[in-house]
Amino acid sequence: MDAAVRPPAGDRAAADPADDSSPSQHVAAEDAVVQPLDHATERALGDVVTEDRGTYSVDAAGGLAQSRRPVPGRAGTDRNVARVPAPTPRVALTLAAAVLILLVLFAAFDSVRPFVLGLVLVYLLAPAVDRLAASGVPRALAVLAVFVGVIAVLVAVATLALSPLIAQLSQFIDDLPSLVGGVRGSVEDFYAGLNLTPDVRAIVDRTLGSFGSGIGGISVGGVVGPIIGSVFGFLATLTAYAILPAWLFFVLRDRVRMADSLEGSLPPEWRGDVFAVFAITNRVFGNWIRGQLVLGLIVGLASFVGLMILDRTVSDVFGRYAVLLAILAGVFELVPFIGPIIAAVPAVLIGLTAGPAGFLAALILYFAIQQLENNILVPKIQGDAVELHPAIVMTSLVIGAALAGILGAIISLPIAAASRDIFRYFFRRVSDPPATVEQALVGVSPKLLQGVRQSALEPMTAVAAPAREVA
């Protein structure tokens, strides 16, 4: 029996010849050819109709033409979406070169620490350079203009803060013996007032006395060797800092050109994923660096204001070192989790010299600033870009400090956050059915679509397989 090929019932309205809304999808009735179908063809058509619902019509050759309309933002709706492709030789070579560069940088990490500061400055200064370049200013002149503005700001800050900072630091060094004596007296009075048994007191006294027992057994060779190594390391670091401004100038000037070269060196099917990773990394590190700068300024200013209030209400010892303690609070804000705690220790100890009231006042001040930062400032300034569980933060902090010291501890948080978001992205890209690059980015954060390089996404559409046609 002859059978006409018909679309599913739910899509029959889209294929109705009486509907003039989409004439390109229909043919005249006299051009339609009704052909008998064998069992294999009928089963194949049934699979197509069942699996890929779209718009169906009978074409002039008598086949069933399908125009698929993927649902935006829904992973796997478009059957043409390909997973992350296997590395081509060119991609494998690029990845191997990147791994080799990372290994060399890690081996020479002590000498390239200044360039980590350079990357931080790139994230801070790149938006200003891009805005000037977008307004028509040549990039080289835009970089120089930004440099001049930064130097002017640094000179103004140094003029305002450097003089009182040096004065308070000198005063702190002069007062250090009396401060240590005051802290020791307060601790001894507190210790004497504790209700401890003689045995416990003996154990505590022996423990405290053992702190200075190893000072006399220091080896000269054990001291001279590290000092010589430190001198050579200092010279290498000094050389890196000397060339840092020139390195920063060339990176800021040629940043767009280097991105174009990288895009041209990658196969079209890899460009979207590579630049998606760059967009994720830029979002995390950019938000973290700019957020930490703003947080450091706010925390330092809040600490200064609070210390001056305590100077008027509790003891003048707080105002004596207000600038020094405020700068310490702003700098240690860069160290995640434990930085604010370290910054609070000097202020609390100085407050202890003024008695229990000064100790409690300093403790309450820094606790209030920490709560203000965690509950109000961080969510508003950094958003969810670097939001991590406290257990992950502490683990990342320990691992970063073990690998790269204080600098590793500082950058451990954004590295962990970027790794988390990259995992989320590729998890969606390799799912079944796979998400497109845009869908995977939206799954991580909708804001990422604004930061990804759009020209890298265009080849993803160009290399997609055409829609299937069953004749």
* Strand line-up in the sheet with most strands: 1-2
Largest sheet: 2 strands, antiparallel
Radius of gyration: 33 Å
Total beta strand runs = 2
> In percent, how much strand structure appears in the residues?
under 5%
Number of domains: 2
The helicity comes to over 70%
Between the first and last Cα atoms, what is the distance in angstroms? 19 Å
From the spread of the alpha carbons, the general shape counts as elongated
Number of helices: 15
Low-pLDDT windows of residues: 1-79, 214-225, 461-471
Category from helices, strands and their pairing: mainly alpha
Mean pLDDT: 74
Order of helices and strands: HEEHHHHHHHHHHHHHH
Write a compact overview of the structure shown:
This protein has 471 residues and is mainly alpha-helical. The chain has 2 domains: 9-67, no CATH class; 89-192 and 237-462, no CATH class.
Helix and strand layout, with pairings?
Layout: H1 39-51, E1 55-58, E2 64-67, H2 89-107, H3 109-134, H4 139-192, H5 198-209, H6 220-265, H7 268-313, H8 317-320, H9 322-332, H10 339-352, H11 356-381, H12 390-429, H13 437-444, H14 448-451, H15 454-462
Antiparallel strand pairs: 1-2
Helix pairs in contact: 3-4, 3-6, 4-6, 7-9, 7-11, 7-12, 7-15, 9-10, 10-11, 12-13
Protein traits:
single chain; 471 residues; mainly alpha; 2 domains; two-stranded antiparallel sheet; 15 helices; 2 strands; elongated; disordered C terminus
Explain what you see.
The chain is mostly helical and 471 residues long. Helices cover 70% and strands 2% of the residues. The chain folds into two domains: 9-67, no CATH class; 89-192 and 237-462, no CATH class. The protein contains 15 helices and two strands. Strands 1-2 form a two-stranded antiparallel sheet. A hairpin with a 5-residue loop joins strand 1 and strand 2 (64-67).
